[in-house]
Amino acid sequence: MNICVRILRHGLLAVAVCISLGLAACGGGGSSGSSSSLTTNCANPTPLDPNGCVYLGMTDAPGDFLTYTVNISSMTLKRADGATVQMLPQSTTVDFAQYSNLTEFLTGVSMPPGNYVSGTITLDYSNADIQVEDNNGNPVQVTPLDQNGNPITGQLTLTIDLDTGTGILHVAPGIPRLLDVDFNLQASNQVDLNNDTVTVQPFLDAVVNPDINNMIRLRGPLASVDTQGSSYTIGIAPFWTRANSSNPYGRMTIHTTGSTVFEINQQGYTGSAGLAALAAAGPTTATLAMGSFDFTTNQYVATEVDAGSSVPGGTMDAAQGVVTAVNGSTLTLQGATLIRSSQTVTFADSVAVTVGPNTRVHEEGQPNGSFSTSDISVGQRLTVFGTITNPNPGSLAMDASNGFVGMEYTRVDATFMGPDGSGTGMLVNVQSIEDRPISMFNFTGTGSDPASYDVDLNGLSDSGFGVNDPVASYGFVTPFGSAPPDFSATSVTDFANASALVRLNWASPGSTQAFSSIDATNGIVPNLSSSPTADVLRRGGIVVSLTSLPASPVILGNGYGAYAILQNGVVQVHVTFSGFVTDLSNRLTAGASVTGFYAIGGFDSSSNTLTSNKIAVVVH
Question: CB 261: neighbour CB atoms within 10 A?
């Protein structure tokens, strides 16, 4: 049964949703004070069920962290009558730095019906691993501090209140909800490289949003395959959680199409052939899907599926990162996440990888392509499977000479210089690759010059770009030694419509004059004369001071979004810009001061305007 409903909710839930996600079963959320101990089969919710279903995903706004690993100890929702539901079945370790522009599906929860008016999330920093880049791109371990400057050795809990004057989360049988939680690393943390510390004040928002632009990832062991229905079912195992027989996170059905690309036990397939190979792999086979929600058919549809030994954490060690140098058969992999065959996960930054003639190489999206190690060049993002031969930090080494390398879609941030003269490409000045500064890369032997980098557009248009405009290209680096062109793009984008960031900070206790004007129609104008400690416009790898602009930028709202205010450990999320402006104005009138302002959206340089659907403000 497919249920279609439009939700316009303040606080945790916002905008429209029309879903039936094809879950085979929901994890039952623990509750207290509830009259219902029954659960609902979230594969087929009906109005006759005792409970409703809420599906939970996690993402992260971009931040300046190499790794930000903490435990999520608890996530609850509270009903108006005081009954609470635990959304997570157990503590889960998350590296939030890995989830920028990516959503990971956590669980599906059967919840008693009713009006839910608030939520909490508890983060455990007792074993936190937080690392940032210094000015030279080197990793620096920082110590988390609370607002009083004391080291954080335990848990921090954040409350999110719904605006009951505008709407609440109404859970009803037969009407599923998709809850997407965003941990805003920029708004949550202030880094001090002089003292190697980070001051933490967690800032999260959560919305129901069918227009998720991120790819959505689903992990877990295979339960069954329906070749006639072009689908398979997994037990959800989010992040790097070990799956177990009790399946506490629930089950989910993943739909495929004739163009879904499969990589199973390091062999490529497409469509039904991949589904048949997955069935042959058998139950409990590790799987990882990348895809999106199709709200026309109300299903999760995978564009790419990895399984068996092609999934990190399986039979071989794995490392994920970007190549910064090639020296014969040795690749230097930076920004590396190590996933051992024992399923321990650590951030290692740099790993020396040995490849050879027997190393199998695939390119993402090309299951039938023929590739070798000679196709790997500087700047390419990789997942490498092999054996860790030196586990010591600072000299980590992996032998993949009899292993497997997956070349993945890579992001290049640059400024536009103009057409390349061939009629099929553009020249750019590269600032960063995979968020690492271009100074870290050694292009010796590649034929590439990052200051005049030739991007093959493959039929894409660069007509909307002006000279010196920031531009992001996604695709694959040209094979080693064969440049130019230096890069083959599958997509290109500027920052006029999305992903630009305006950020300002003020030293404690904050500024009462942070804004020159606040108006729901004419926008918010930051006051650059209020002595902010940071004032930046970030567009991909291009970061400039707001003082370099013709004037202080105007921040406008863009319809329904997530406009949030954090004060005294409580986040208030508004779905309308007008409601947010009214709330913020009232707090400032009452004497509140501002320590942080963060807005994400499209930046129009001609009008000096950022049109945003996500704003976070920290006030005291």
Answer: 22
